[in-house]
Structure formats: structure tokens, C-alpha cells
Design brief:
Structural class of chain B: mainly alpha
Largest interface: A-B, 38 and 36 residues
Radius of gyration of chain B: 25 Å
Helix content of chain B: over 70%
Distance between the termini of chain A: 87 Å
Largest sheet of chain A: 10 strands, mixed
Number of domains of chain A: 2
CATH topology of the largest domain in chain A: D-Maltodextrin-Binding Protein, domain 2
Pfam families (chain A): SBP_bac_8 (PF13416)
Strand content of chain A: 15-25%
CATH superfamily of one domain in chain B: MetI-like
CATH class of one domain in chain B: Mainly Alpha
Protein name (chain A): Putrescine-binding periplasmic protein
CATH class of the largest domain in chain A: Alpha Beta
Family (chain A): Belongs to the bacterial solute-binding protein PotD/PotF family.
Order of helices and strands of chain B: HEEHHHHHHHHHHHH
Strand content of chain B: under 5%
InterPro entries (chain A): SBP, Sperm_putr-bd
Number of strands of chain B: 2
Shape of chain A: globular
Oligomer: heterodimer
Strand order of the largest sheet of chain B: 1-2
Largest sheet of chain B: 2 strands, antiparallel
CATH architecture of the largest domain in chain A: 3-Layer(aba) Sandwich
Distance between the termini of chain B: 58 Å
Number of helices of chain B: 13
GO biological process, one term (chain A): polyamine transport
CATH architecture of one domain in chain B: Orthogonal Bundle
């Protein structure tokens, strides 16, 4: 009798344990995002509101993320690809249909940001954030800088500059100066754009993403960097300045996508809907200092961000920003020229 | 009869138990990845990473000379990058050797407590992440960094030295990273050195230089070669140091391979480059093994020449 009873109790305990385990498994969400690309406060709020525990892993480039997902990294629910990578991932059938476009809060999103050609009705992904890629410079080293031509002039005068270690961004500068499209697949145009960089190579100190501390210390006068440089400009307004070059620049946009093999699809959808709320999008912008496609959110963000023309540029500047498209096979032209640039000296 | 049979069985089982784990380990962590790489290097690159299962020889064609199409063109630059990497790696090996050889002698002469302390100090850097240590070098080497401030403060130079983002910075960084790898094998062979041999050498009238050349150097040669190989191989494939301290302007073969797997999304070409590096290292290792077996033979057969 006693033995039977204890077995019963043990069985009960086991089922209870299994049940709590299942409940715990439901209460999870794992994000795979770019480094420092979401305000941690947003995640805290989400957990407070829904009780869902959020974990965050980070990557440094679209390709790194894609390679890891393709190699079978599983367990992630939400990724943040750029628009061209969103298209690629759609073609590779890696994304889950979420119907976020028909969610009630989706009216908040400016329709021009639903950019991915494979997802014209936002049935898969939610436009997350956008920004431009310009120049950050040290005001003690150079009084005024207005564009790419100035940047290379500055380099010629003996000051140091750093460009991004990214084939398309950096060859893109050549395209912008030559007046060709940053998505050109014409071999002659790509070579000509790469030659602009090669001609100035002697004066480029490095290709790097870690240039901000060097600009701040004055070791480097100016660097090719993202709009997020405004975070550092805000901390050191007397030293740093960030501009969108007058000749034009590139822009980027990341979308929030749910993976097809996401273990917590329902929670992922909840997070997307949570992020549609204007106050949450605004909370993210406050710390990230970048652009949000959420229209009502733009009224909620601090005025020093909303009125900063390098973050929310006027229409004529906006029209000069080009966004990268997926080039398929022709990416090889860019990689070939990139290797040529790196070995030209 | 029966007991001897079970004895043989037991021995067989023991042998099996001893051999299976290392064989499995090698199979899973060496043979399988290597096979994947060999196969991938002969396949067509997938448009978005991965591979298409078609035979494709242009990956090697791009490196060695027969590819000529819009997307796959032979370029001598890949071999040039390879030889540049060999040069940087060899320089690193030589500098590591010059630093570690005297240091190992010095430490081997100390009392046991001091010895242990210094050996611990040599391995201490492993406790801190490599990336953090390399960023520290950026702070040291940059124009307004510690090194330039110190040199300018003492009046040795008037203009800051331009070290960061050059080959020199890469060599400094790699030397720093690989010194423990050179030190430990060197120390092991120097520690074993029988000091009485040096005394007899000088008793027999050899000068210091002769003692070094004829006694110390041959006896510590295994450590020198072992350390050199252990430093050379990872230095050749290194990509973190050139991208942080070389500012990605110094391109080594490791960077090129990394680029193929990430931004270029060309896994087969990356594999082909990897195979070329591996082939070069294999040649080196075969040479090393041959030389070591010859050394062993020489050591076993007492030759009259040595006695003279």
C-alpha cells in the first residue's frame, strides 16, 4: 500500500515537473541580432509585460548570420537581416510566414519601408530600423567636412582616414563619386568605382569597423561609419561630428524576421506585435539614435534625435541615399575588386 | 588452454578499448572535416553560400592559372598573398626564436620556485581573451598611444612613429601572441640539456662559439624546430591580428579565406585556398619528420666524426 502510494506521488510529481517544464519552454524567445542593435530596455519591458524570457545572441554581418543559419544553427526565433538579405533568406525558404502585415498595429508602419521585393505585403517580416552610412570626423583635426571628395582631400593633405572593411560599402563610395549606382553590375563601372578607392589607397590608414575610438583620440581625422556614430557625437559634441556626405551615401534597413524552424513562433509573433507599439519603437530609437519606420513613434522620440538632419534627413538628402540590393553572381565582381584593392599597395 | 585464450581475448579487448577512442576522435575531428573540405573545394559555389553538387575545377583554376571567365578569373594575387603570409609568418618565427631562446636558458638556470613562477607568467596571457589583448596593442601602438608617448617623452623621436596598420604592427602582434608557443617546446629541450656536456666541451678546448655550434645547438634543435612549426602553422593562417593591428590593409591568407566564407559567400573557393595552405604545411611537416628520423639514426649510431 505504502509503496503504491509513494509511486503514485512520484508519478504525480513527475507530471507536475513535466508540466512546468513545458510552461517554461513556452515562455522563451531567442533573438539573433546585430551587436548593440536593440535597446536592452525594450527586451526588459517585453519580459515584464508578457513573462517571456528573452535571450539575445549577436552577429557582425548579414553573411555571418546567414552562414550560421545555413550551417544549422537552430534555436533562434527572430533574426534581423538587411533588406537584401531578407530577399535572399526568402529565396532560400528560411523565413516563416507571420502575417504581421495584417496585424492591427501595422498601420503605424510607413509603407515605403516595406522594401523587400520577395515580401511586398509584409507577410513575413516587419521593417525594423534604418539609417545611413556617412562620415564621422574629429573637429580638432578638420574644421569642416562636407562629403567624400573632402574626405579624400583631407587624406591627401596627410591626415589619416579609415574606411569600412566592407566590399560593397567601400566600393560604393567610388560609385557615388562616379555617379554610378551602388548596385551596378557593369564590370567597367565596378572597376572604375574600385579604382577611385585604389587611387586614394595610399592615404587610407585602414579598413575597419573599430574606428570611433581612434577618431575620438585624434589618431585618425575621419572615418566612414554608420549613423549610430551620433551616439558618440552626443557624448563628445565638442570633438566629434557626423555628416551625410553631400554627394550622396548609402542607407541600410533591417527587417525583423521569424525563422522557419523557430522553436517559439508564437512568442516571436508576440514580440513583433509588441514592437509595432509606437512607444516601444521610440524607446529603441532613443538609445540607438537611428531611424524608425513607425510613424507615430517619430512624434515620441526626443527632439534632438528627430531634428537631427543626419538621422532624419530632409527629402532632398533622403533621395540621394541608395540602398543595397542583392546582386547574385555579380557579387563576385565586387569581391574580386575588393581583393585587388587590398593588394594594390 | 582456456585461460590463455581468454587472456588473448582480454588483451584484444584492452587494445581495442585503447585504440577506439583516439581513432574515433581523429575520424570525427580530423578526417571528416578534412574530407568535407577536399570535396567542397571541387564543387561549384552556391549563389548564397553552400555548394552546388557539380564538379568544378575553377576554384583551383583561380589560384593556379586556368580559370578565365567573367566570374572566375585567374589572378596571381592569391599566390602573392600566400607568399606574403609565409614571409610574415617566418619573420614571426624568427623573432619569437630570438626572444625565447635566451629567455629559456635564463629561466632554466633558476631555482625551482622561481622557475615555476616564470613558467606560470609565460602562460598567464592565455587567461585573457586574445581579442582584448590585441585591442590593448592598438592602444599601445597608435600615434597617440603609450609607445609613442614614451618615446617622445624621452626625446628619442619628435614625430610619432607610424606603426599601427602596417606589416610591422602585424609582426609585433603575432610575435606577442605566439611567444608562449615557441617558449614551451624550447624550454623543454633546454631544460634537458646536460650541463656537464658543456663543461667537457670547454675542458676539451672548445671555444664558447664552438660549444654552442657543436653541442648546444644540435641538442636543442628538436625544441627549435618543434617550436618553429608550432608558431609557423597558426601564424600562417592567422586572420585576427592582421584585421585588428593591420587595419585589414595587410591581407594575409587567413583573411582571404575568412572573406570567402563570409562576405564573398564562396565556400568552395575558401576551401580551395585552405587546401593550398594545408598542402604547404604538409610538405613542411614531412620534411620535419624526415629530418627527425635522420637525427634519431645519427644519435643511435656513434660516429667517429663526433668523437674527433
Amino acid at each position: 500500500m505504502n509503496a503504491l502510494k509513494s509511486i503514485k506521488i512520484a508519478a504525480l510529481a513527475l507530471t507536475a515537473l513535466a508540466a512546468t517544464n513545458a510552461a517554461q519552454a513556452q515562455e522563451k524567445l531567442s533573438l539573433y541580432n546585430w551587436g548593440d542593435y536593440i535597446n536592452p530596455e525594450v527586451l526588459t519591458r517585453f519580459t515584464e509585460e508578457t513573462g517571456i524570457e528573452v535571450s539575445l545572441d549577436t552577429y557582425g554581418s548579414n553573411e555571418e548570420m546567414l552562414a550560421k543559419i545555413q550551417a544549422g544553427a537552430s534555436g533562434y526565433d527572430i533574426v534581423f537581416p538587411s533588406v537584401h538579405m531578407h530577399d535572399i533568406m526568402s529565396q532560400l525558404d528560411l523565413l516563416a510566414k507571420t502575417d504581421i502585415g495584417s496585424s492591427p498595429g501595422f498601420d503605424n508602419i510607413d509603407p515605403q519601408f516595406v522594401r523587400a521585393s520577395t515580401d511586398p505585403n509584409a507577410e513575413y517580416c516587419l521593417p525594423y530600423a534604418w539609417g545611413n552610412v556617412g562620415i564621422v570626423y574629429n573637429k580638432n583635426k578638420v574644421d569642416e567636412l562636407s562629403g567624400w571628395a573632402d574626405l579624400f582631400e583631407l587624406a591627401k593633405s596627410g591626415e589619416k582616414i579609415i574606411l569600412l572593411d566592407d566590399p560593397r560599402e567601400t566600393i560604393g563610395i567610388g560609385h557615388i563619386l562616379n555617379g554610378t549606382s551602388v548596385n551596378s553590375t557593369d564590370e567597367a563601372e565596378v572597376v572604375a568605382a574600385a579604382n577611385v578607392i585604389k587611387d586614394n589607397l595610399e592615404n587610407v590608414s585602414a579598413f575597419s569597423y573599430d574606428s570611433i575610438p581612434l577618431v575620438q583620440s585624434g589618431d585618425v581625422a575621419a572615418a566612414h561609419w554608420y549613423v549610430g556614430a551620433n551616439i558618440f557625437v552626443q557624448q563628445n559634441p565638442d570633438i566629434l561630428e557626423y555628416i551625410i556626405p553631400e554627394e550622396g551615401a548609402t542607407m541600410y534597413q533591417e527587417d525583423m524576421c521569424v525563422l522557419k524552424n523557430a522553436p517559439n513562433q508564437a512568442n516571436a509573433k508576440k514580440f513583433m506585435e509588441f514592437y509595432l507599439k509606437p512607444e516601444i519603437a521610440a524607446l529603441n530609437v532613443e538609445q540607438q539614435m537611428n531611424g524608425t519606420p513607425n510613424i507615430p513613434a517619430q512624434a515620441l522620440i526626443p527632439s534632438e534625435i528627430a531634428d537631427n538632419p543626419s538621422i532624419y534627413p530632409p527629402a532632398d538628402v533622403l533621395s540621394k541615399l541608395q540602398i543595397f540590393e542583392d546582386l547574385g553572381q555579380d557579387l563576385k565582381l565586387y569581391n574580386r575588386e575588393w581583393t585587388a584593392i587590398k593588394t594594390a599597395q | 588452454m582456456i585461460s590463455s585464450k581468454t587472456n588473448v581475448d582480454r588483451r584484444r579487448i584492452m587494445l581495442l578499448g585503447l585504440l577506439v577512442p583516439p581513432t574515433l576522435f581523429l575520424l570525427v575531428f580530423f578526417i571528416v572535416p578534412l574530407t568535407i573540405m577536399v570535396i567542397y573545394s571541387w564543387l561549384e559555389p552556391g549563389l548564397y553560400g553552400g555548394v552546388v553538387w557539380n564538379f568544378y575545377d575553377l576554384n583551383y583554376g583561380r589560384i593556379l592559372g586556368w580559370a578565365d571567365s567573367r566570374y572566375e578569373k585567374f589572378d596571381p594575387v592569391y599566390l602573392a598573398i600566400f607568399f606574403k603570409s609565409v614571409r610574415l609568418a617566418l619573420t614571426t618565427v624568427l623573432i619569437c626564436l630570438f626572444v625565447c631562446y635566451p629567455a629559456a636558458f635564463w629561466i632554466s638556470k633558476m631555482s625551482d620556485t622561481k622557475k615555476n613562477l616564470f613558467l606560470f607568467l609565460v602562460t598567464l596571457p592565455f587567461f585573457v581573451s586574445l581579442i582584448v589583448r590585441l585591442f590593448a596593442w592598438v592602444l599601445i601602438l597608435r600615434p597617440t598611444g603609450f609607445l609613442n608617448q614614451a618615446l617622445m617623452g624621452t626625446g628619442l623621436i619628435s614625430e610619432p612613429l607610424q606603426i599601427i596598420f602596417t606589416d610591422t604592427a602585424v609582426i609585433i602582434g603575432m610575435t606577442y601572441v605566439f611567444i608562449p608557443f615557441m617558449f614551451l617546446p624550447l624550454y623543454a629541450s633546454i631544460e634537458k640539456l646536460d650541463m656537464s656536456l658543456l663543461e667537457s666541451s670547454s675542458d676539451l678546448g672548445a671555444t664558447r662559439l664552438q660549444t654552442f655550434r657543436r653541442v648546444i645547438l644540435p641538442l636543442t634543435l628538436p625544441g627549435i624546430i618543434g617550436g618553429s612549426i608550432i608558431v609557423f602553422i597558426p601564424a600562417l593562417g592567422n586572420f585576427i591580428v592582421p584585421s585588428l593591428l593591420g587595419g585589414a590593409k595587410v591581407l594575409m591568407i587567413g583573411n582571404l579565406i575568412e572573406q570567402q566564407f563570409l562576405s564573398a559567400r564562396n565556400w568552395p573557393f575558401g576551401s580551395a585556398l585552405g587546401m593550398i595552405v594545408m598542402a604547404a604545411i604538409l610538405v613542411l611537416l614531412v620534411y620535419y619528420v624526415k629530418m627527425m628520423t635522420r637525427e634519431d639514426r645519427l644519435a643511435r649510431t656513434p660516429s667517429i666524426k663526433e668523437v674527433q
